[in-house]
C-alpha cells in the first residue's frame, strides 16, 4: 500500500477476494434497491407515461455506466483502484441518503401513495430536481466504483502463479454471482415493499446496505494488494496517433531493429509487462520508427514523446483498437438485457400477478433471472467447461471468452422470441377496454419465467465472458479501462434502447394509431418490438462472428500462449 512489495502469505488471495465479493453483494443490493423498481416509481409517484418512464430509466442506467469511464480513468491514471473505489462508494452512499430524504419528505405525498391504487399528488420543479440530483449522484457513485472493484478483486490474485491464476479465473464467475445474489435480495424483499408503496423504506434499506459495504471495504484495507497507477493513458494514446501522423510519408524498413524502445527488458509504461510487437495496424509503427532527426534528438538527450514513442506504447494503442470491434458488437446485447428492467416489468404488470391472496411484484420476476445465473454458473464451471476440455485436441481451458460471448448472443435471441410469444398470448387474454390495466390479462405472470431464464443464461456466457476477456486482453496500465468497456457497452445499450423505443413509438403512432408501446399495452403490439430485437440481435451475431474470427490475442513477454484458429472462435 505504501510502495512496499506485497507479502504473498499476508495479502490478497481469497481472504481479500471474499471481502471484495461481500462488498460487491451489498453495493449491488443497494443499487438495485433503487434501479429495479425505478420505472414503477416514475409512473406511480411522478406520474410519467410508460414509454417516457422506460426512456428515463434507460438514460439513467446508461449514465451509470458512462461514469464507469470516469472512474476507470482516475484509477488507471492517478488514484489507483483502492482509493477510487473508496471515494466513489462515499458518493454512492450520499446519493442514496439524499434520495431517501427526498422521497420521505417531499415526493410521497399524500403519505402512503405510490402503491397500485393510490396515486401521488403533483410535485414542484425543485422537488423533481432534487430527485434527479440524488439518483444521478447514485449513478456517479456506483458507476465510478463498479469497473474498479472488479479489477481490484482480480488484482488480489497473481496470474503468473498457477494456483492463484486459476483462482483469478474463478473470481470473475463468483463476482458476477455475488452481484446477482445482491440483486436477488433487492428484487424480492425490497421490490415487494416498494411495490406495496413503501418506497422510503426500500430506499433507506439501500442506503444502509451501501454504508455497510463501505465499512467492510475499508476494514479489509490491510489485506489488499495494490498496483500503482501508470499515468494518463489518453496522453499516451494521443502521442502515438500524433507521432504516427507526423511520419505518414516515412518509408519503414522491414524488421524491428529500427523501432524505438526506451527499455529493452521492460515496458515503457511504468509497472506494466512488456507487450510484444505485432503486425496489425502497421501505420502506427511509424510512431516508434527512428528517423535521422530522432537520432540527433536522442544524442542531444531531448527526445520528443509527440514525435517518437516506444514500441510498447504503440502496442498498447493497438491492443485497444483490436478490442473495439468486439466491444461494439456487445452493445446490442445490452439493449436486449435492458428490457428486463423496463418493458419486462411493464409487461408483467399487465398480467395476472395474484397467487392465492398474494400479489407478486412484477419486478420480482427478475428473481428467476438471478436463479438462472446461479444455476448456469454452476453448470458451466462444473459440467460444460470440463466436458468441452475433454473433446479439445490439445490442453485448453474449455470454451474461450469469445466463444462464450457468441453463445450469449444466441441465447439472447431466444429470450426475445420467448418474450414476443408470451406477449401474443397475453394480448389474447387481455381486456382492451380497461382504464387502469394492471393485471388486466388473465394470463399468469409466471409465463414470463422462460424469458427471464434465457436472459440469465445469456448473462453467464456474455457478461462473465466479457469481464474475463477485457481484463485479460487490456494492457496492464489499462485494466480498469478494460472493465469499464464492459460497463460502457451496457451504457450505450441503454441509450440505444431509449433511442429505439423513441423511434418505434414515433413511427408506430403515425396516422393516429395507438403504436406498439402505448400507455395501455392492451391496445399496442409489444410483441412486435420483441421480435424486432430478435432480428437485430441475429444480424449482430453475424457481425460478431466475423470480428471474433479476425481478433488476435495480446502477447506479453514471458507469457506467449498460441491459440489455434479453431480454439479462438467457432460456432458450436
From TrEMBL:
Coiled-coil intervals: none
GO cellular component terms listed in the entry, alphabetical order: membrane
GO function term, MF aspect, one: transmembrane transporter activity
The name this protein goes by in its record: Nitrate transporter 1.5
Entry keyword annotation includes Ribosomal protein: no
Annotated keywords: Membrane, Transmembrane, Transmembrane helix
Alphabetized InterPro entries for the sequence: MFS_trans_sf, POT_fam
Location within or outside the cell: Membrane
SUPFAM superfamilies from the UniProt entry: MFS general substrate transporter (SSF103473)
Residue spans crossing the bilayer: 21-42, 62-79, 86-108, 128-145, 171-193, 199-219, 323-345, 365-384, 405-422, 529-551
Principal cellular location given in the protein's record: membrane
Species this chain originates from: Rhododendron griersonianum
One Pfam family linked to the record: PTR2
Recorded family membership: Belongs to the major facilitator superfamily. Phosphate:H(+) symporter (TC 2.A.1.9) family.
UniProt membrane topology term: Multi-pass membrane protein
Keyword Transmembrane helix on entry: yes
Amino acid at each position: 500500500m505504501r510502495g512496499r512489495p506485497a507479502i504473498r502469505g499476508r495479502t490478497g488471495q481469497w481472504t481479500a477476494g471474499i471481502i471484495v465479493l461481500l462488498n460487491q453483494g451489498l453495493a449491488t443490493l443497494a443499487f438495485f434497491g433503487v434501479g429495479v423498481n425505478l420505472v414503477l416509481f416514475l409512473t406511480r409517484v411522478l406520474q410519467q407515461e410508460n414509454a417516457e418512464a422506460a426512456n428515463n430509466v434507460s438514460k439513467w442506467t446508461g449514465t451509470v455506466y458512462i461514469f464507469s469511464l470516469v472512474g476507470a480513468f482516475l484509477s488507471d491514471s492517478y488514484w489507483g483502484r483502492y482509493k477510487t473505489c473508496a471515494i466513489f462508494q462515499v458518493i454512492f452512499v450520499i446519493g442514496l441518503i439524499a434520495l431517501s430524504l427526498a422521497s420521505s419528505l417531499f415526493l410521497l405525498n399524500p403519505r402512503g401513495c405510490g402503491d397500485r391504487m393510490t396515486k401521488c399528488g403533483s410535485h414542484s420543479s425543485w422537488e423533481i430536481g432534487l430527485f434527479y440530483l440524488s439518483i444521478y449522484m447514485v449513478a456517479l457513485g456506483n458507476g465510478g466504483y463498479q469497473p474498479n472493484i472488479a479489477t481490484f478483486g482480480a488484482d488480489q490474485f497473481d496470474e503468473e502463479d498457477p494456483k492463484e491464476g486459476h483462482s483469478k479465473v474463478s473470481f470473475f464467475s463468483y463476482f458476477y454471482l455475488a452481484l446477482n445474489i445482491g440483486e436477488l435480495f433487492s428484487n424480492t424483499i425490497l421490490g415487494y415493499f416498494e411495490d406495496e408503496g413503501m418506497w422510503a423504506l426500500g430506499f433507506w434499506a439501500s442506503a444502509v446496505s451501501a454504508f455497510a459495504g463501505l465499512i467492510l471495504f475499508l476494514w479489509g484495507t490491510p489485506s489488499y494488494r495494490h498496483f500503482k497507477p501508470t499515468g494518463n493513458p489518453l496522453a499516451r494514446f494521443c502521442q502515438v496517433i500524433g507521432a504516427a501522423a507526423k511520419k505518414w510519408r516515412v518509408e519503414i524498413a522491414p524488421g524491428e531493429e529500427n523501432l524505438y524502445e526506451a527499455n529493452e527488458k521492460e515496458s515503457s509504461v511504468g509497472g506494466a509487462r512488456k507487450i510484444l510487437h505485432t503486425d496489425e495496424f502497421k501505420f502506427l509503427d511509424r510512431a516508434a520508427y527512428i528517423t535521422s532527426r530522432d537520432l540527433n534528438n536522442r544524442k542531444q538527450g531531448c527526445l520528443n514523446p509527440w514525435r517518437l514513442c516506444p514500441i510498447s506504447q504503440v502496442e498498447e494503442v493497438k491492443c485497444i483498437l483490436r478490442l473495439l470491434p468486439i466491444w461494439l458488437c456487445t452493445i446490442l446485447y445490452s439493449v436486449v438485457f435492458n428490457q428486463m428492467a423496463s418493458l419486462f416489468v411493464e409487461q408483467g404488470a399487465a398480467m395476472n400477478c395474484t397467487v392465492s391472496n398474494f400479489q407478486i411484484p412484477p419486478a420480482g420476476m427478475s428473481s428467476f433471472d438471478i436463479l438462472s445465473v446461479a444455476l448456469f454458473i454452476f453448470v458451466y464451471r462444473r459440467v460444460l467447461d470440463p466436458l468441452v476440455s475433454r473433446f479439445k485436441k490439445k490442453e485448453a481451458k474449455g470454451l474461450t471468452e469469445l466463444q462464450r460471448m457468441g453463445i450469449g448472443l444466441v441465447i439472447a435471441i431466444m429470450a426475445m422470441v420467448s418474450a414476443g410469444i408470451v406477449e401474443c398470448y397475453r394480448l389474447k387474454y387481455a381486456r382492451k377496454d380497461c382504464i387502469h390495466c394492471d393485471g388486466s390479462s388473465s394470463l399468469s405472470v409466471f409465463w414470463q419465467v422462460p424469458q427471464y431464464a434465457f436472459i440469465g443464461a445469456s448473462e453467464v456466457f456474455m457478461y462473465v465472458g466479457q469481464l474475463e476477456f477485457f481484463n485479460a486482453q487490456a494492457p496492464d496500465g489499462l485494466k480498469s479501462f478494460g472493465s469499464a468497456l464492459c460497463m460502457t457497452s451496457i451504457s450505450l445499450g441503454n441509450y440505444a434502447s431509449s433511442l429505439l423505443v423513441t423511434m418505434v413509438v414515433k413511427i408506430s403512432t403515425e396516422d393516429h394509431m395507438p403504436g406498439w408501446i402505448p400507455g395501455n399495452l392492451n391496445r399496442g403490439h409489444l410483441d412486435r418490438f420483441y421480435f424486432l430485437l430478435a432480428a437485430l440481435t441475429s444480424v449482430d451475431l453475424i457481425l460478431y462472428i466475423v470480428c471474433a474470427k479476425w481478433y488476435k490475442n495480446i502477447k506479453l513477454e514471458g507469457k506467449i500462449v498460441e491459440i489455434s484458429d479453431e480454439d479462438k472462435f467457432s460456432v458450436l
